[in-house]
Write a structure and sequence with these properties.
Layout: H1 34-46, H2 50-81, H3 86-135, H4 138-143, H5 146-188, H6 190-197, H7 199-237, H8 239-244, H9 248-300, H10 306-347, E1 369-377, E2 383-392, E3 397-401, H11 408-414, E4 423-428, E5 431-432, H12 438-443, E6 445-448, H13 459-463, H14 472-481, H15 485-490, H16 508-522, E7 526-530, H17 538-552, E8 556-560, H18 564-569, E9 572-577, E10 580-585, H19 587-593, H20 596-602, H21 614-621
Parallel strand pairs: 3-8, 3-9, 6-7, 7-8
Antiparallel strand pairs: 1-2, 1-4, 4-5, 9-10
Helix pairs in contact: 2-3, 2-5, 2-10, 3-5, 5-6, 5-7, 5-10, 6-9, 7-9, 7-10, 9-10, 14-16, 16-17, 19-20
Bound molecules: adenosine-5'-triphosphate.
The site of adenosine-5'-triphosphate has 13 residues, from helix 11.
Length: 624
């Protein structure tokens, strides 16, 4: 049964007091017109395909020429009907067959070649978009909803392709055909031609206006599509939470509102687009009527031959279709321009985190890390670090402890340059991380996060991620050291087991051990560790702790510590609060000091492993 809102403008009708918004922040849109888009596309992407483009263009000329020949043939046919020349009629008929055959073949050639170019260009744009996103600053990527990127890849890129493959070729071909037919009209009778062609500028004005409307609606439509992708991907990612909190209906309503908005805007674009063709048809009708009347009168008064009028009218009627299509594709092209305006900002991203031109690779001798008076705030102005000084000597472990939001993860993120300090320096073995090549910097450290990410691939591929040359024996050794080999070997497909999307087929502890094996295999001098909180059961926790302590052996480690066992084994504990190191020392010293650390160690911020007695945990950490 159709719902009441189906045809109404969609409204934001939230289910709760403060419903989640149905839209995500849009990506910036480039201010660029049709000419700008086409010339940029031609400059950057058409060049390698210029031969194909020339073939398509030549074929379009042939199509236009063959179409333009038809009214001329009709004139000859009609002029010879009254005579007795059967040969002439046969010749004209053969000419008509030749003209339509040539037109058909040339149409095929131009379409195929233009489609080829369009597909190549979109593939190139998509590849470049992906590479740009991969190399962009983490801050920029994480500030943009993934739904926006996905709809950019699928919806916007396909719109651009359609513009190139269909609209541009249709536009070019139809324009040439109209020119050829108008030329034929002038050749037949220039006075009538002027009369018939008078409607063309009026059509042009109407189409221009409709194009503007289409572009506006297309822009809204694309934003809606981005929102829809975001809503769907978010609901799927959070499906457990949705179900656990009984929010299926709310999420469905949210998706429905977005879908309605997309439908509403799509309809707006379709309406504007669909108007172009009938309006053009109607205006052309006036031209045809004028020619019939005035042309007919000229025939009656003997100023014009019946063949001239017949040829002329057929030229007008033949021009009718391409003229309508011209109007239609014009509006379609506006949708392509709106899509390109959304894609260009992604193609133009300039990462601010990059190495200087003459950067040398990081020379890792000890892997010692040093933070010197580091200040940092996020792009939105959120101050996160206010003068941090931390020294992690070779092979030492420094544990970062502090309340939530104190700045611990931010400190970790500065080492591989996910972000750059606003002021101050981060040094590895005396070299500023901003002065060395990014790949050497990232090769120097392994990052193991609280909730490690696995790719939807085999366990083997996940362990070897970032170490493509690793042998099976090396992968297995890393897994053994990460206490993961046993459970992997017990799986029916062993190392070839597919882990599912984001590793959902594995338990939290298993995922972590695979991530640890990955870091083992990478064998970097520096370990950046964001210890998992207590989501694991005691047995898994002991195994993970075991694996971690082996991973930490001999490496310089900066760890966001949540467990007393890790903290007690750290050489130094830095207590972070409001972006500063407020206390520094060993566990015993800090407890004796009676400050924030002492308070934290009594609260849930540091987990006393009460499920496993401290002694058991420590024994496990020591690998006994
Ligand atoms: P937790 O223990 O809860 O993970 P943390 O000590 O690691 O916290 P950080 O994640 O470093 O804290 O965050 C420090 C501050 O920076 C917080 O106020 C946080 O809200 C802010 N912050 C973190 N990430 C971003 C971001 N991407 N954009 C803006 N602000 C951020």
């Amino acid at each position: 049964m159709p719902s009441k809102t189906t045809d109404a403008r969609p409204r934001q009708t939230g289910a709760g007091a403060t419903p989640r918004p149905d839209s995500v922040p849009p990506l910036p849109v480039a201010e660029i017109g049709m000419g700008g888009v086409l010339s940029r596309m031609a400059r950057e992407y058409l060049k390698p395909h210029w031969r194909t483009a020339v073939i398509a263009l030549l074929a379009s000329f042939v199509v236009a020429g063959a179409t333009g020949a038809v009214p001329v043939l009709i004139k000859f046919a009609l002029d010879n009907i009254v005579g007795t020349d059967a040969w002439m009629l046969l010749l004209v008929s053969a000419g008509a067959i030749a003209a339509t055959s040539v037109q058909a073949i040339a149409t095929y050639i131009s379409r195929i070649n233009m489609a080829k170019i369009g597909q190549h260009i979109v593939a190139a744009v998509q590849k470049r978009m992906f590479t740009q996103i991969m190399h962009a600053d983490l801050a920029w990527v994480s500030n943009t909803h993934s739904g926006r990127f996905i709809s950019g890849f699928l919806y916007d890129a396909n719109r651009v392709r359609d513009t190139i493959t269909t609209s541009v070729i249709d536009f070019g071909q139809n324009l040439l055909t109209v020119f050829a037919l108008v030329g034929a009209m002038f050749w037949l009778n220039w006075k009538l031609a002027l009369m018939g062609a008078a409607v063309i500028p009026v059509v042009g004005l109407v189409v221009r206006q409709l194009g503007r409307r289409t572009r506006k609606a297309a822009k809204l439509n694309m934003e809606g599509s981005g929102d829809l992708t975001a809503v769907i991907s978010e609901a799927l990612k959070g499906i457990r939470v949705v179900k656990a909190y009984d929010q299926e209906t709310t999420e469905s309503a949210r998706a429905s509102r977005t879908i309605d908005r997309v439908r509403y805007n799509a309809m707006k674009a379709i309406k504007a687009r669909s108007m172009a063709s009938p309006i053009t048809g109607m205006l052309s009708g006036f031209g045809v009527a004028a020619v019939i009347y005035f042309g007919g009168r000229s025939v009656q008064t003997g100023f014009l031959s019946i063949g001239d009028l017949g040829g002329f009218l057929s030229a007008m009627l033949l021009a009718y279709e391409p003229l309508k299509k011209l109007a239609n594709t014009q509006t379609l092209m506006h949708e392509g321009v709106a899509a390109a305006a959304r894609i260009f900002p992604i193609l133009d991203i300039e990462p601010s985190i990059k190495a200087p031109e003459d950067a040398k690779p990081l020379h890792v001798k000890d892997g010692a890390i040093r933070f010197e008076n580091v200040h940092f705030h996020y792009g939105d102005g959120t101050p996160a670090l206010n003068g941090v000084d931390i020294e992690v000597p070779k092979g030492h472990t420094v544990a970062l402890v502090g309340p939530s939001g104190a700045g611990k993860s931010t400190i970790l993120n500065l080492v591989p340059r996910f972000y750059d300090p606003t002021s101050g320096r981060v040094l590895i073995d005396g070299q500023d991380v901003r002065d060395v090549t990014l790949s050497s910097l990232r090769a120097a450290s392994s990052l193991v996060t609280q909730d490690p990410f696995l790719f939807d691939d085999t366990i083997r591929a996940n362990i070897a991620y970032g170490s493509p040359g690793a042998t099976d024996a090396e992968i297995e050794e890393a897994a053994r050291n990460a206490a993961a080999h046993e459970f992997i070997a017990a799986l029916p497909k062993g190392y070839d087991t597919l882990v599912g999307e984001a590793g959902f087929k594995l338990s939290g502890g298993q995922r972590q051990r695979i991530a640890i094996a990955r870091a083992m295999l990478k064998n970097a001098a520096i370990l950046l560790l964001d210890e998992a909180t207590s989501s694991l059961d005691t047995a898994s926790e002991i195994q993970v702790q075991n694996a971690l302590s082996r991973l930490m052996e001999g490496r310089t480690t900066l760890v966001i510590a949540h467990r007393l066992s890790t903290i007690k084994h750290a050489n130094t504990i830095c207590v972070i609060d409001e972006g500063r190191v407020v206390e520094r020392g060993s566990h015993a010293e800090l407890v004796a000091h009676g400050g924030l650390y002492a308070e934290l160690s009594r609260s849930q911020f540091i987990e006393e492993p009460d499920a496993a007695p401290e002694g058991a945990s420590q024994a496990a950490v020591a690998g006994e």
